[in-house]
Amino acid sequence: MKISTIEVIRIGEPRWDDLPWWSTSPLDVFLTEGSTPPERQSGLYNRAPGTGDNVFALIVRIGLENDMIGIGCIALGSEATAVFIERNLSPLVLGSSVFDTEMIWNKMFRGTINVGRRGLVLNAISGIDIAIWDALGHLLQQPVYNLLGGKTKKRFRSYLSSGYTMEDPDRMVDLAARYVSEGYTAFKMRFGYGPADGRPGMLKNKEIIRKLRLKLGDKMEIMGDAYMGWTRQYAIEMIRMIDEYELTWIEEPLLPDDVEGYAQIRSSCRTAIAGGEHEATRWGFRRLIAAGAVDYVQLDVNRVGGITEARKICNLAASFDLPVVPHSPNFHNAHLIMANFNAPLIEMFPRDYRDGDTFIAELFHGEPVSRDGYVYLDDSPGFGVSLNDEVVDRFRVVSGTT
């Protein structure tokens, strides 16, 4: 069964809720002590303000010669990614058998190696690959997790991912307590202070963690996300300050390319280190894992190269006895978790506000949801999702530049 069409649907950036919180980010290097929260928020998503690109996400829809379709999602999209799919990747894929996932993936990856390897190009490859696996599931009338080896568990645990820093830390702590009352057994917060805030900022980070632990109790798992906003020395000092509160992990303390820095932090602190959200391909993860840089592998299927590559990364992590905890709750990550023994946990976002994380779920019917702290997948074919046409049509844009 051949692939006959590839369509890229551009989703414009909606108006985000005006939220009173922030997180550290890679752009914190430009901040000075005392910078206001609006300045800090600018690095959270996929572009700095003022770039002229109003595409936020992409949906890739492939059609088979029998008119069946498959859907893939690129959560961090751009006009450049859309054009790359249409002009560079589509000619390599059209006419191929939908069963030839390895051949198609290698054509795309090797055919763009001089301009690709990661980033925008791997996002584009991922979107097509995810759509191919969805179409394959529909063709065979099987859920994708069955195509990856079947269920390894009846359900899997979810953790609530929110907890951005606020001016009043008690507000964040109270909000966390309300969310975890819904049955979650794990909660992830975002650090709000980094090197630009000096010693006073470190003490504020510590106080937030202390209050969270006191409010949520010793049985609750707590994770902390620095979103690439720290330096090596800052991270080591900061993590040592909060080791006593026994966080499950500290996530992305550094830029993703500083693998040696991750390894240094991990060897210097008691708390586990998580990373990989911004890494790609088995080769990128081989370096990360072999260096002893992480305790938790946080791949994202729509960034690493799709399902075809993500399953290899899961096997690589398993050979080092490392757990895989994918970034984001999207349908492609959920099916990967269901099919792998070393993938115990899924990230979930609240649905009571709109930001760059929560918006993606609005685009689809059938996205995974958490019930009493667990996610269950049914046996619907493919990834079990369909487009929410009303939302897609509302935010669809013809061109991504202004």
Structural description of this entry:
- By secondary structure, the chain is of the alpha/beta class.
- It folds into 2 domains: 3-141 and 390-397, Enolase-like, domain 1 (2-Layer Sandwich), CATH 3.30.390; 146-385, TIM Barrel, CATH 3.20.20.
- The protein is built from 14 helices and 15 strands.
- The protein has helices at 37-41, 79-93, 101-111, 119-140, 144-147, 169-180, 198-216, 232-242, 259-268, 281-290, 301-304, 307-319, 331-338, 389-395, and strands at residues 3-12, 55-64, 69-74, 156-161, 186-190, 221-225, 249-251, 273-275, 296-297, 345-348, 364-365, 370-371, 374-375, 386-387, 396-397.
- Strands 4, 5, 6, 7, 8, 9, 10, 12 and 13 form a 9-stranded mixed sheet that branches. A 4-stranded antiparallel sheet has the order 3-2-1-15.
- A hairpin with a 4-residue loop joins β2 and β3 (69-74).
- α2 (79-93) crosses α4 (119-140).
- The radius of gyration is 20 Å and the shape is globular.
- The two termini are 39 Å apart.
- The mean pLDDT is 93.
Strand and helix map with partners:
Layout lengths: L2 E10 L24 H5 L13 E10 L4 E6 L4 H15 L7 H11 L7 H22 L3 H4 L8 E6 L7 H12 L5 E5 L7 H19 L4 E5 L6 H11 L6 E3 L7 H10 L4 E3 L5 H10 L5 E2 L3 H4 L2 H13 L11 H8 L6 E4 L15 E2 L4 E2 L2 E2 L10 E2 L1 H7 E2 L5
Parallel strand pairs: 4-5, 4-10, 5-6, 6-7, 7-8, 8-9
Antiparallel strand pairs: 1-2, 1-15, 2-3, 4-13, 11-14, 12-13
Helix pairs in contact: 2-4, 3-4, 6-7, 8-9, 10-12
